[in-house]
Predict the 3D structure of the following.
Amino acid sequence: MNKKQKKWLRKIIIAACFFAVVFTVDLTIKLDEVLPKPYGIIFRMGLYLIIYLYIGKDVIKRSLKNIMNGHVFDENFLMVIATIGAFAISEFGEAVVVMLLFQVGEFFQSYAVGKSRQSITNLMDIRPDYANVMGINGLIKVDPSEVAIGDVIVVKPGEKIPLDGIIISGQTIIDAKALTGEAIPQEKGPEQEVVSGTINLTSLIEVKVIKTYNDSTVSKILELVENAQTNKSKSEKFITKFARVYTPIVVISAILLILIFGLITKDWSEWVYRGLNFLVVSCPCAVVISVPLAFFSGLGECSKNQILIKGSSYMEKIAKSNVFVLDKTGTITKGNFKVTKINSNYSDKNVLYYAAICEQHSLHPIAQSIVEEYQTTIDKQIPNNYVIKEFPGFGIEARLDDEVILAGNNKLMKLNNIIFNEVNEAGTVVYVSRNGAFIGSILIEDEIKSETFKFIDELNKRNLKSIMLTGDNNVVASLVASNLGITEFHSSLLPHEKVSSLEEIIKNKNEDDVVCFIGDGINDAPALTRSDVGFGMGKIGTDAAIEASDVVLMNDDLNGIIKARNISRKTLKIVKENIVFALGVKILVLILSALGITDLWIAVFSDVGVCILAILNSFRIVKK
Amino acid sequence: MKRKFNLENLDCANCAAKMERNILKISGVDTANVNFFMQTMTIEAEDNMFEEIMKEVERVCKKVEPDLLIKR
C-alpha cells in the first residue's frame, strides 16, 4: 500500500466509525427531537453532512472539475448528484452510506490494481540500469542504450549483464533464472556468449558487446511485455464500447423515470428516490476494471511461468487452440544425437569400445554421441595409441599393430567384404568390425525431448490434434510419430516446404479451428507468422524468435503451451463470469429500483460489492 | 518519433480509455496508448511538432483526470 492509499484507508475507517456512532444514536434517540423544530432536523442533517463532506470532499472536487470540462456522465459527478438527491429527500444516512461505499469501492480498485501491477513490475527486474564501460580514464557508468557494438563492458559480481555480448576475459557463473526460469546457474568463460538480463554471480568479467541495447534480448522481452496490453482482446474492446453507452443510457432512463412517473403519480419524492438508485448503479466500474484486470493477471501468470504472450487478443485464440503443428528438429527433438540402441553378437560394451576408439577424434555429431555414450556409461579413458584414418562418406579405420578396427556405414562394410547384419531402423547406423569380423552395430537417433512425450500426451488427452513437420523420410517420421502418439505427420519436407505445408493445413481447417505453430524460431519465422498463434521456443538470444512469434516459451519447455492454454481458458472463463455477473446484478438492481423494491443502501452495496467480487474473481487466475 | 512516459495518479481504467480516444483526435498524433495497468503512455507523433503535441496531450488528459502527472 502506498502513502496515498494509507491515507485514503484511514479516512474511510474514521468516516465509517463516525457514521456508525451518529447512526446508532439517531436510531435510539430521535435526533430530530433533541432540539425544537426546525433546529432538530438541521442539527441531524448537519451531523451527517459533516461526515459526508469529510469522506466525499475529493469526489465533490473532482466532479466539479469534470463538470467544468463538460463530462456530464462522470462517475464522480453522478455520485454527487445521487447523494445530494438523497439529502434533498431527507435520506441523510443513505447519502453518507452511498458516498462511503463508493469510496470503499474506489479504494479497493486502486489497491487491487496496484497489487497486480506489482507482479508484472517484478518481471521488469530484468531491466539493467547501467553499464560499466571501459574508458580511457577507467570505468564509467553509462546508460545501457549509450553503449555501442564492439565496446567492452565490465560486469562485476552481483550485477545484471546489461547487453548481449561475448566474454573476453574472466570465468564466472551466470544466473538466468529471471529470464528462463532455469534454476541451475551456468558456468561461462571466455569466447562464450552472455545474455542481457541475466545476473553475473561470482566474479568479474569483461564482455565485448555484440548488440545495441535496443536489439538486446532484455529490451526485446521488456518491449514484448509492455506492449502486451496494446493488443486488446475482443472482450476488452466490447467492454470499453459498452462503458461508453451504458452510463448515458442509465442516466437518461433515470431522468425519464423521474419525470414520467413523477408527473403521473405526483409522488415526486418516491420517484426521485427510485431515480437516484439508477444513478448509483450507473457507473460501469465493475466490468470496466475487472475484464482488463483478468487479462492482465492472466498475462502476468503466464510470464511467471516464463511464457510471454504478445497480448490478450492472443489469449482468446490460445484458449480455443486445437491444432498444433510442430517442427521436428529442435522442437520435438533436442537437435542433438544420442546412441539409442546397440546390436551385437556377444557384448554391447565391446561394440561401443571399438567404435569409440575409431570416433574419438572426430567432430561429427554422430561420432561425438558415440564417444559421449562410451565415456558416460563405461569408461572415461579411451585408448589413444591407435592410428586413425578417416574415409569421408564411409567411416573410420583404427590400427594398432595387427589389429584393424572399422566403424562406419554399410558401404564401408561392403567395401571391406565384411559380412554384417543390416539394420533397418530410423536413425543413423554405425557398423563396427574388428580384424575382418563384424561385431555389431550402433543406432544413433536425434534424441526426443523428454517433455515432448508429456506434451503430446496432454494434447491427446484433450483431443487436440498434433501434426509434425519434418525433413526426415517417411520411415523415420512415422516411427517418431507413432512413438510419440502424434496423429498426423508430413515428411520429406524441404525447409521452404514447411510453410506451404502449414498453409495447406490452415486452408483445410474447420472454421473454428485455431492452428498453432511451434518452432525454434531460427528458420521457422515465416511459419510462426503465418499461423494463428506462433509459439517460439525462446532459445534466449534469438531475437528473431521473439519478433516472429506471438508467444515466446522462454524456458523452451513445450509443456508451457499446455500451461498457456490452461491459463488462457481460465482467464476467459473468469472474464465471462465477470461480465455476466456484473451486468446481471446491475440489471437486477435497475429493475428492482424501478419497481421500488430496493433502496439506496442495497443499490450502492451491490454495486461496490460486485466490483470487489469481480476484482477478487480476477485474482483467482494468479496462483499463490 | 515514439516516446514513452510514466504516469502518476491515473486512477481509473475508464479514464485511461477516454484519454486515449481524446489524444488520438489531436492532429499530428499517429498512435497513442494509455496503459492503465503499467501507468504508462506511449505517443507516436511527428518529430518537428512533438513538443506542441505533448502540450496538447497534457491538456486533454488533465481534462479527464485533473490530478494526472505526465513524467518527462
Observations:
- The two ends of chain B are 15 Å apart (CA to CA).
